[in-house]
Design goal:
Rossmann fold, about 550 residues, alpha/beta, 19 helices
Length: about 550
């Protein structure tokens, strides 16, 4: 079969959390630096249709694409590393695959035939990969297979990948297997057996890995690389050391030095062009050698799991890099702020960020953090629910509307400053994929802080919400000093809130973190960190100048 797109499948063995996503994203960056067009897909083995209804403690954050898909957090890594806008087609789950096959069977699409894992499920998986290859037409499509080799859930994806190498041809398809080479202190040496057993599992499925990306805490000596290669049927030069970098963004540079991309180019019969990594090296250099620092508090309800706020943490990192600064993060439980004074839990921070979320838990704590930032002149950035609680806090403590709230938390409030969007009422019994999702326009008010930071009158940002600010309360809030400086032009929905005269007080209904990239940091995060640095250097008065 002739194909203009070449495929790289990234698999993992031995253990979860080995860094397949970062390895795939890094490889994408290295190929793009060689001038190749790149796209990356994630095949997730769970039966949920998407992660939209999953608890963040189970899955981490839900990354939203511009076309409105709720996807795996690895899609965020891919976008940040390769600086390409991906779509719903770039994330496939077992739930989507099985749902499509069952729907087709119910409609008579298989003409009375017996529906089986092979070929029907595997054919659907292959069709989804092929669709990305045909619609995006990248030179190389990297496909990460979630889970661990040996997991029963991943077997249909692995079988589909095995078939695709036969169909695509050996020069057009390569397998990169991420595995573990642990160091045992008692023995004083690195051990290759976990990698050998992992490869054995792959071979039992019919897949011979072409390249091994070996995760290790220590350098892998040449002798061990030769041993691993010998017992795994892989050339020693294709046994690639894959260690942690000093920073996440150093990983592509380390993998480049260790020959990962060169090995992939060799197996795919691609020219191993000299990569242009100058910009990426500057990013890493600025992050490793900051000129200043600040501390930002993230006040949320899922702070025990840092991946719940992964894109926010990365966007703050990007803002720090743009300002030549190191950004320390303090994760503060919103629930803890309901019983402990904000001044104690937030003492010394240079900025407060209140992220999105759902449900009642921790809302009063989020309002306490926002009030602390507003009254204390501490830079504040609110996102989604963070903006809604900023409006509720202002209504309560400035206008004196004591029970002002969102109807999500208090359906009987006398001041429902945040309310369910009218078209969302019909979706409350069908939660998956029914929120206001994806990219929408926002028109900025001339002279506003948002306009100053963006530098353009209309922007497009990604959303994930059911509730909105009630427009009938806006005149009273503006009369009390709050400003609504970003409006969706199609529906008149409030998108941005500001407080003039404050060092930095800005909140958005949308999620700007999803568009931030290390080489293109989001302007709101750049401005937020700049204000936090000014407070760190000279206090509130300096930030106001």
């Amino acid at each position: 079969m002739e194909n203009s797109t070449k495929l790289v499948f990234v698999t993992g063995g031995v253990s979860s959390s080995l860094g397949k996503g970062i390895t795939a994203a890094s490889l994408g960056r290295l190929l793009k630096a060689r001038g190749y067009r790149i796209s990356i897909c994630k095949l997730d083995p769970y039966l949920n249709v998407d992660p939209g209804t999953m608890n963040p403690y189970q899955h981490g954050e839900v990354f939203v694409t511009d076309d409105g898909a709720e996807t795996d957090l690895d899609i965020g890594h891919y976008e940040r590393f390769i600086d390409e806008t991906l779509t719903r087609e770039n994330n496939t789950t077992s739930g989507q695959v099985y749902l499509r096959v069952i729907e087709r069977e119910r409609a008579g699409g298989y003409h009375g035939g017996t529906v089986q894992i092979i070929p029907h499920i595997t054919d659907e998986i292959k069709a989804r990969v092929r669709r990305v290859a045909e619609t995006v037409a990248p030179d190389v499509l990297i496909v990460e297979i979630g889970g661990t080799v040996g997991d029963i859930e991943s077997q249909p994806f692995l079988e589909a990948a095995r078939q695709m190498k036969t169909e695509w041809g050996p020069d057009n398809c390569a397998f990169v297997h991420v595995t573990l080479v642990p160091y045992l202190a008692a023995a004083g040496e690195l051990k290759s057996k976990p990698t050998q057993h992992s490869v054995k599992e792959l071979l039992g499925i019919g897949i011979q890995p072409d390249i091994l990306a070996c995760r290790s805490e220590r350098p892998i000596p040449e002798s061990l690389r030769r041993k691993i290669g010998l017992f795994c049927n892989v050339a020693a030069e294709d046994v690639i050391e894959n260690r942690n970098g000093r920073t996440l963004y150093e990983v592509p540079l380390m993998l480049e030095a260790n020959g990962l991309c060169a090995a992939v180019c060799r197996h795919l019969r691609l020219a191993n062009r000299t990569p242009d990594l100058a910009c990426w090296r500057r990013i890493v250099e600025r992050e490793l050698h900051p000129e200043s620092d600040c501390e930002i508090a993230i006040v949320g309800k899922y702070v025990e799991l840092r991946d719940a706020y992964l894109s926010i943490a990365e966007a703050l990192r990007h803002g720090g890099i743009a300002n030549g600064a190191s950004v320390r993060l303090r994760y503060v439980s919103a629930e803890a702020l309901e019983t402990a004074p904000a001044a104690s839990l937030l003492a010394g921070v240079n900025g407060v960020l209140v992220p999105g979320g759902f449900g009642n838990r921790g809302l009063l704590g989020k309002m306490a953090a926002i009030r602390f930032a507003r009254e204390g002149g501490v830079p504040f950035l609110g996102i989604c629910l963070g903006m809604q609680m900023a409006v509720a806090e202002y209504a309560r403590n400035v206008l004196g509307w004591a029970d002002a709230h969102s109807t999500e938390a208090d359906p009987d409030t006398a001041y429902p400053v945040v309310d369910l969007m009218p078209d969302q009422a019909q979706n409350l019994d069908h939660l998956g994929g029914t929120l206001r999702l994806g990219g929408y326009a926002c028109r900025l008010q001339p002279g506003s802080l948002a306009m100053l930071l963006y530098g353009e009158p209309v922007v497009r940002e990604r959303h994930r919400h059911r509730y909105e600010i009630r427009n009938d309360f806006i005149p009273a809030l503006e009369a009390a000093g709050l400003r609504f400086t970003g409006i969706n032009p199609e529906r008149g929905l409030c998108e941005i809130v500001e407080l003039p005269g404050h060092p930095f007080y800005l909140a958005t209904q949308f999620h700007p973190e999803f568009r931030s990239r290390p080489d293109r940091p989001h302007p709101l995060f750049v401005g937020f960190i700049r204000a936090a640095l000014a407070v760190a250097a000279g206090g509130v008065s300096a930030a106001l100048e």
